[in-house]
Structure formats: structure tokens, C-alpha cells
Amino acid sequence: MTDSKIVFITGANTGIGYETVKALLKSVRRYVILLGTRSLVKGEAAIESLRTEVPDSSSTVHSIVIDVVSDESIEAAFKEVEVRWGRVDSLINNAGAEFSWEFKAGKLTRRELLNKTFDVNVSGAYIVTETFMPLLLRSSDARIIFISSGQASLTAFSNGMMRLPPLPAAGWPKEMAFDATAYRSAKAALNMMMLNISRMLRNDKVKVWGVSPGFLKTGLGNMDPALVETMGAKDPSIGGIFIKDVVEGLKDADVGKVVHAEGHVQDW
């Protein structure tokens, strides 16, 4: 069993997950980073890219195949991690997706959109956490992070502080350029799940957070990063660095809350 902290990140071959791996590799602390990916080929390609970007890291990174919507895949990943490393110190539930573009293109029904969105963003995160709990409880400083979103804030939505599309015209059906109802609702549900898990693990001394990384150029929802940059989206490295900071204890005063990359605790 290694003395380095073992960090497992789902959905880590691209986007915020990839940037989190990079930030950990750049840290002065030593980590064994488990890069969760649905495809071993893509995971290994990500690792090669990371080795080019961070050639002198004292940490190591390894691909772990995991599909968060497959119980069999989650269990196989658990067994691999248990055999090879024996514990997990930090679990980062980063894997997530937004599918409204598939619905708008006629590839999904409304029910399929809702079910697929919740399966990836909520159910998958819960099952991964539940499955890996025995390995987390072997850590002397276990941490669980759920990647939330500013889109999940009921307060910001209701008081007009959230970026929203113009109100549609009266009548039915509604024609909307972008409808994030499913994604927004799933991330709000994820926050409630985080709260429940944080309470459940209080006597186990496991620290749990939601992390809102901000509006970043990640390609979420099949959106062009160049386009969202014109809308104010920032570089995804900002999110990765912030998640690294949570792993390293900079937000220990805010356990059980959703912490935002801009420095504040996000309103529910």
C-alpha cells in the first residue's frame, strides 16, 4: 500500500476531470491518481498527453476503466482498485453529461432525456460512492467530492441571478434555443444527495463537498468551446486547480456545502 494519497476521478480523460489530474500532477504533494475513463484507449491517450504537459511530476497516474451507468463496470473498477491499491483517499465524482442537444435533434424523447441525464449525473455518482465506500473508510483522511454546477442553485434561479435564456412566447409547445431543465434538475438533486451522504458519514469522519467549478470551456452539452468563451466561459484549468485545492484541505471549513471556484459557498 502506497504512502502517497490515492485519488480516484471519474470521467477524467477530458474536460474538468483531465484538468484536475493535471493540477494534482503539478502539486508539490505526491499522489497516485486513478484516471477514470470509459475507454482504456482514450485513458491511455490522456495519460500520454499529461506526461507531455507535466513531465517532471513526483506523482503517478493510471487508467481505470469505469462507466458510471453500468453497475458491472463500477464493480470491476472497485475490484481492480482494491487489489492494486487497497484504499482510496479522495473520490471525485466528476463524470457527468448534458444531453439536451440530443433531445433537440430528435435523438431522445423527453423521458429518455430525463432518465439519461439523471442516470449519469445522479445515480452513477451515488452507486460509485456506495461501491467504493469500503476503500474510502480505509483512509485516515477520506474525502468525497461531487461536481455540482452553478445551474443547480434554486436561490440563484429564483432571484434572477442565473444566466437564463429569454422567456418563451405564450402557447405550447415552447420553442427554446437551449433548455437545460434536465441537467439543472439533476445537479440540484446531486446537491441533496451530497448533503445526505455527508450527514450519513459524519461519525466516520469522512469529508464531503459539492464543488461548483464555474462556467468553463469544457464542451459540455456538445457546445463549441470557442462559442461559450464569447459568453464568458473560462479555461477549464481553473476548475481543476480548485478541485485540487479541495483535495488538499483548503475548503475543510466548508464540509457539507457546495463550494464555488470563485471562493464563496454556493446558495442552495
UniProtKB/TrEMBL annotation:
Top-level taxon of the source organism: Eukaryota
GO biological process terms on file: secondary metabolic process
One Pfam assignment: adh_short
Gene3D superfamilies: NAD(P)-binding Rossmann-like Domain
One GO CC term on file: cytoplasm
Molecular function as annotated in GO: oxidoreductase activity
Database matches in SUPFAM superfamilies: NAD(P)-binding Rossmann-fold domains (SSF51735)
Family: Belongs to the short-chain dehydrogenases/reductases (SDR) family.
Name of the protein in its database record: Short chain dehydrogenase
